[in-house]
Amino acid sequence: MSEATAAAERVARESYGRLVARLAWQWRDLAAAEDALADAFAAALSHWPQQGLPDAPEAWLARAAQRRLLHHARHTRLTLDPRVTALLDEAEPEAPQRPAVPDARLQLMFVCAHPAIATQVHAPLMLQAVLGLDAKVIASAFLVSPAAMAQRLVRGKARIREAGLRFEAPEDRELPARLAAVLEAIYAAYTLGRQALDSPAGDLREEALFLARLTAQLLPGQAEAWGLLALLLHAEARRAAQFDAQGRFVPLQAQDPTSWSDDLIREAETALWTAAQLRQPGSFQIEAAIQSAHAQRRATGQTPWRAIAQLYGVLVQHHASLGARVGLAVAQAEAGEPAAAVALLDALPPEAAGYAPYWVARAHVLGLAGAPGRQAALQRAIGLTEDPRLRDYLVAQLG
Amino acid sequence: MQFMLVFKETTAEVSRRDDPSAAPAYWGAWQAYVGAMHGSGIVVSGNALQPPRTATHVRLEGGKRQVQDGPFADTHEHLGGYFIVETASLDDALEWAARAPCASAGSVEVRPVLPPPAGAAS
């Protein structure tokens, strides 16, 4: 790879989100901003090797993309925002500053989380708009055919264009609802990245952590943003311990706590503490508190199952998701009430039957209760599991 | 919608069937997977196949019959089995495809079934 190509890729990585957010704002058209930026990057790849790297590559790209957008606008006769026209009159846009907090990106994320856009497109759209991932990578991460994903993204952007006037930071009263969608999308991206065996979808994990840190920094008064950050950091702290040297899956209870990352746990605990000070309880904070309780084993050698069961109880009251109810059952069984746990699992809705963690939990809880049916539940879990490492682990449990 | 899931296995994965130390895990995973598909009620029909070495190929070349035993020599992935499933969408079919043991040791092709042309039905 030539030096210019490498430089273009580095600039692309560092400034894509910033540039696309700024352009989308000025022009109120996300799709056009992305197209223009793609052209600008292509131009950079052909110009820079010959003419040398410009002093301010990001400003160069911004200028090239602006020219492209203006050219396009002349043809389509868009009515321009006066701010846009004013900006185009500037002979030389000044080199963009590098603000510590590039909040145009977060604003763009809020636009992508707009209620007018289908929920299942929120996360893919954010990943494309803010991180510049291509539709194929996103499609693989979300297990959707690339053509279908591309279509969904296009539709999502069309909605944004139609709602062009809402291209502004949400008002205070809208913030909590929109923030929830942003946080859900970041959480989904992290989970998908965790499931992936390697890149490119594995990069999603890093990007999700980045977005979670960014969101908490930009909205320090929102407890759930800190809660999500704490949750992801706790999960990240144990990531290396989840597989042994042979690549075999190691369940949480069998993990050696000394192999968890101290730094990440500390950062997680600080984030959770910050959230608690704000006194706005929420699901992500409770989930982070559950992970924080698991992390206590590092200091005490014991998992506080009773406390974890109570936290799951609160979580179920907040949001009775399948995952929370399965978690509650496992914690109750571990805390010495396996019969109550079996009853909880029996009461779950029929869609639980398609959810692999439900069958894993059922096998475990039946085992603790000494009740029959453990083997059958394990079989079902194996059949529904996608991760080959988890499948191997479960097959070994068949005994 | 009906989709065909076509399971393809790498040569190494196929050979696990004959390896006494790997065969229990191999069959255990497939049995569980097929059981889960049946349990969810999506299966229209389907089968696993005998190993690729049992295959016989037939073709006509210039009107002459050519018969050949075994798989094509240069094949890297072998057909291991197939299922026709009824799911609400391609996304659901892809989700089931990803759960197949050979998804991480080969691939799964997912294709919509072509409905019979109008008038062809009985």
Structure description:
The complex is a heterodimer of chains A (399) and B (122). Chain A has 399 residues and is an all-alpha fold. Among the domains of chain A are: 3-89; 103-144 and 157-162 and 174-232, no CATH class. Helices cover 70% and strands 0% of the residues of chain A. Chain A is built from 20 helices and no strands. The N and C termini of chain A lie far apart (52 Å). Chain B has 122 residues and is α+β, with helices and mostly antiparallel strands. Chain B has a 4-stranded antiparallel beta sheet with strand order 2-5-1-6. In chain B, strands 3-4 form a two-stranded antiparallel ribbon. The mean pLDDT of chain B is 91. The interface between A and B is medium-sized, with 21 and 23 residues.
Can I get a quick summary?
The complex is a heterodimer of chains A (399) and B (122). Chain A is mainly alpha-helical and 399 residues long. Chain A contains 20 helices and no strands.
Secondary-structure map with pairings?
The complex is a heterodimer of chains A (399) and B (122).
Chain A: H1 3-27, H2 30-51, H3 57-76, H4 82-89, H5 103-112, H6 119-131, H7 135-142, H8 146-162, H9 175-195, H10 203-218, H11 223-237, H12 262-278, H13 283-295, H14 297-300, H15 305-318, H16 322-334, H17 338-346, H18 356-369, H19 374-384, H20 388-397
Chain B: E1 2-10, H1 11-15, H2 23-39, E2 43-48, E3 56-61, E4 64-69, E5 77-86, H3 90-99, E6 106-112
Brief descriptors of the model:
heterodimer; A: 399 residues; mainly alpha; 20 helices; B: 122 residues; alpha+beta; Alpha-Beta Plaits; 4-stranded antiparallel sheet; two-stranded antiparallel ribbon; 3 helices; 26% helix
Strand proportion of chain A? under 5%
| CA-based gyration radius of chain B | 17 Å
List low-pLDDT spans of chain B.
none
Distance between the termini of chain A: 52 Å
